Amino acid sequence: MKFRSIHKFPKANIGDSVRVSLPDVDRGRADPRNIIFGVVSIEDGQYYKLGNKYGTLPQLYTRNQFDVCPVSLIPLDEVVHVVKLLREIGSQMSDGGGQGYKRCSCKRKCDTNRCKWKSSSNLCKSKCHGSMPCNNKG
């Protein structure tokens, strides 16, 4: 079993680019399914520290948790050593702002500029208030 695993997942080297899949719950519909990282260090010969220009992941990865890219895409001098979660890096890379959506949280009709959503010139959506009346709908 270990022999098969070693041949299926050969070792990665420091400086290799790897692809880590982003879980469905941590991304929006238009967000990428995978994130490219570089191998920053290897501990005990089997645990890999990964990072890219948005940050370094706090946990260590084993070889079966990522795929090695055939070409090195991320130079090690571009890797930022600020520790961030995979979810945070995924939301920074996304076009839509990550897994959630932004909405108004008012309990009234959004008449005045006290509503932060209206003061930033956004129109309320159906997900903002549900069935409550609103004067800021578009």
From TrEMBL:
It comes from the Eukaryota. This is Uncharacterized protein. It comes from Macrosiphum euphorbiae (potato aphid).
